[in-house]
């Protein structure tokens, strides 16, 4: 998939080195096709890392995608240079009159914090409400998934102690769903969180479908009955060393973290992790884009408002 991004986005150079086709705005102007318009609300502090991870996963179909990044204005990132945000990110006021085929709401390091105590909670709520009439399909990821289930369905997360960290086996519950085309019956994916919702909470809401779960990690993927909302609690976009870097960070802080489950060979942090989630993660994003965005979105993206 040629991903259309602004010229000089740092992720562009990383992805090109991985032989991933990234198209600049100038080149895209010569193609007479309508790209899918995907907006990413990036709530992670390490924004460039998250940009690269997500763009990598959006890169493997013949579709052209125009990706825009959205930031909150009620809270300014302390870990990303302001010049990067000024050049590559938009505010809600800049996009509120536009329509999008897809929206991705990322996770955020907000374990043990009530939604209403989050600095930008009101702004995120405004964006989620706006998405009902301006976005064809939304992909909520990790904290974004918890926030979405709480805002749209009143389902509240609960703390999980100790923190869930590692690579877990998942079972597909809706094997005929287009989301899982090409998947094996079981797949592996990383988790890194100290919160959870239960299977019973999902099954109690008739407008939601439980799509995949893990015996150890619990609820993994949920979607709305109309397939306009996806809630994903595993991190299939993670790099090989993401959990390793988190483990080192927490160790250096004196937090005495547990070694991530099923991650380091022989549970030895001196050994390099072996990736067993990359292919399933690629299919997850590709299938979402193809079957739930591209195949069903209006040709005129402005028509989203009438859905």
Tell me about this structure.
Pfam families: HTS. The active site is at residues 142, 235, 237. Keywords: Acyltransferase, Amino-acid biosynthesis, Cytoplasm, Methionine biosynthesis, Transferase. It is an enzyme of class 2 (transferase). Pathway: Amino-acid biosynthesis; L-methionine biosynthesis via de novo pathway; O-acetyl-L-homoserine from L-homoserine: step 1/1. By secondary structure, the protein is an alpha/beta fold. The protein folds into two domains: 3-240 and 275-302, Rossmann fold (3-Layer(aba) Sandwich); 243-273, no CATH class. It is built from ten helices and twelve strands. It has helices spanning 10-17, 25-28, 47-57, 82-88, 92-95, 121-134, 143-153, 199-203, 242-252, 278-294, and strands at residues 3-5, 22-24, 36-41, 65-70, 89-90, 100-105, 135-141, 158-172, 186-196, 208-214, 218-224, 229-232. Strands 1, 2, 3, 4, 5, 6, 7, 8, 9, 10, 11 and 12 form a twelve-stranded mixed sheet that branches. A hairpin with a 4-residue loop joins strand 11 and strand 12. The longest helix has 17 residues, at 278-294. It is globular. Mean pLDDT is 91; it is low at 28-32.
């Amino acid at each position: 998939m040629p991903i259309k991004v602004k010229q000089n986005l740092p992720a562009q150079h990383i992805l090109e080195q991985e032989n991933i086709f990234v198209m600049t705005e100038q080149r895209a102007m010569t193609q007479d096709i309508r790209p899918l318009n995907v907006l990413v609300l990036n709530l992670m502090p390490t924004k460039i890392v998250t940009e690269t991870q997500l763009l990598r996963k959006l890169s493997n179909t013949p579709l052209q995608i125009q990706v825009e990044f959205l930031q909150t204005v009620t809270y300014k990132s302390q870990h990303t240079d302001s010049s990067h945000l000024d050049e590559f990110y938009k505010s809600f006021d800049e996009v509120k009159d536009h329509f999008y085929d897809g929206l991705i709401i990322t996770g955020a390091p907000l374990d043990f914090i009530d939604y209403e105590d989050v600095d930008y909670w009101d702004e995120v709520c405004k964006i989620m409400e706006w998405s009902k009439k301006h976005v064809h399909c939304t992909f909520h990821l990790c904290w974004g998934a918890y926030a979405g289930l709480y805002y749209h369905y009143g389902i509240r997360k609960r703390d999980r102690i100790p923190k869930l960290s590692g690579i877990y086996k998942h079972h597909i519950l809706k094997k005929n769903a287009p989301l899982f085309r090409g998947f094996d019956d079981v797949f592996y994916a990383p988790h890194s969180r100290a919160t959870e919702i239960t299977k019973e909470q999902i099954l109690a809401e008739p407008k939601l479908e439980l799509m995949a779960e893990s015996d150890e990690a619990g609820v993994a993927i949920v979607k709305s009955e109309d397939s306009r909302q996806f809630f994903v609690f595993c991190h299939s976009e993670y790099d090989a060393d993401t959990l390793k870097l988190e483990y080192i960070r927490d160790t250096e802080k004196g937090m005495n973290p547990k070694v991530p489950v099923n991650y380091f060979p022989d549970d030895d942090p001196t050994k390099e992790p072996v990736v067993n989630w990359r292919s399933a993660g690629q299919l997850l994003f590709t299938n979402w884009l193809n079957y739930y965005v591209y195949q069903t979105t209006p040709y005129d993206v402005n028509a989203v408002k009438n859905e």
